[in-house]
Design a protein that fits this description.
mainly alpha; 2 domains; 330 residues; elongated; Alpha-lytic protease prodomain-like; 64% helix; cadmium ion transmembrane transporter activity; Alpha-Beta Plaits; three-stranded mixed sheet
């Protein structure tokens, strides 16, 4: 089995496990709510519905993103992962709005609470499971280059963090009898969940709009700077687009103007191999080869150049900012 197929199957297995775990944890949280009638616990349980729906769509999006390129989708189907993140963020945002609405309602119509100790135990169990599973998914998303796994893992971690705050409030409420803490917790958790949904929506919309990923461009710049060849006089107008597990990079590379077509092809191929061997992602490159001009000489590293018009006077370090600019580094 190829590394790609193995990675894909692993992503599917992780999401499948997260989906099953999400359903079980959702049932546990609703059981805790029925025991306690706590509005804060209901807040946590409602978010679990989002976890289950999001995991189900995440599984489908990974399956669809793995389909090969075709005539109608020359860049593949990877963009569907951004729709998955958008759906998850939207559901979280809506859940936050509903939770805040329920909390405001209970300000005027409070409910009688009971069995808090049992509820605390059940919620603590769900928090531990969510944190362990979410952390594992985030780590695997970096290794498997999966935006969907990352979003789903971050969501579970967020759920676990909110559970910590919930538990602290429930424990205080248990020992003090301050019932109003339940409503305050709901308001705080609702606002936190609302903000988490907004961040996911922002990330998905940025991806669908092909927003520049500064961190990824910086990683490419670091690889090029560390392994640059003297023949590669200049790299500029570099852009990176993410399509699921694949990346598409296009850029301009300045080469000596006396190189013939075969030599240019060899250098472009070496450039391609360098990126694919070091970026740990399936990457398709479109490289435009520029011929050097006399004004490049003062920063050109090439030794014994037969057409040099002046000696090298400075060195240009490639970083995220200057390789993104659409101009040579004069």
């Amino acid at each position: 089995m190829s590394d790609y197929r193995w990675d894909l199957n692993k992503q599917k297995n992780i999401i499948r496990f997260a989906l099953v775990a999400g359903i079980l944890l959702m049932l546990v949280k609703f059981a805790a709510y029925l025991l306690t009638s706590s509005n804060a616990i209901l807040t946590d349980a409602m978010e679990s519905i989002v976890n289950v729906v999001a995991s189900g769509f995440a599984f489908y999006s990974i399956h669809l993103a793995a389909r090969p390129k075709d005539q109608n989708h020359p860049y593949g189907h990877g963009k569907v992962e951004f729709f998955s993140v958008f759906l998850e963020g939207g559901l979280i945002f809506i859940a936050g709005v509903l939770i805040l609405g329920k909390a405001v309602y209970n300000l005027f119509f409070p409910e009688t609470l009971g069995n808090l100790l049992e509820g605390i135990g059940l919620i603590a169990f769900t928090g531990v499971v969510n944190f362990v599973l979410g952390t594992y998914m985030v780590k695997q998303s970096d290794h498997l280059n999966s935006l969907t796994l990352h979003a789903d893992g971050k969501h579970l971690q967020t759920d676990a963090y909110s559970t910590v705050g919930l538990l602290a409030g429930l424990i205080i409420m248990y020992y003090t009898g301050w019932v109003w803490i339940d409503t305050v917790l709901s308001l705080g958790l609702g606002a936190f969940i609302l903000f988490s949904g907004y961040k996911l929506l922002r990330k998905s919309i940025g991806g669908l709009m092909d927003e520049s990923d500064a961190e990824l461009v910086e990683k490419v710049a670091h690889i090029l700077q560390k392994n640059r060849k003297d023949d590669w006089i200049d790299v500029h107008n570099l852009r990176v687009q993410r399509y699921g597990h694949e990346l598409h990079i296009d850029c301009h590379v300045t080469l000596p103007n006396y190189y013939n077509l075969n030599k240019v092809h060899d250098e472009v191929s070496a450039f391609d191999r360098l990126i694919n061997n070091n970026l740990h992602a399936n990457t398709e490159l479109f490289v435009h080869a520029d011929p050097c001009i006399p004004t490049c000489c003062h920063y050109c590293r090439l030794k014994d150049c037969p057409i040099r018009s002046e000696p090298q006077r400075r060195d240009v370090r490639w970083d995220q900012e200057n390789i993104s600019e659409n101009k040579k580094h004069f």
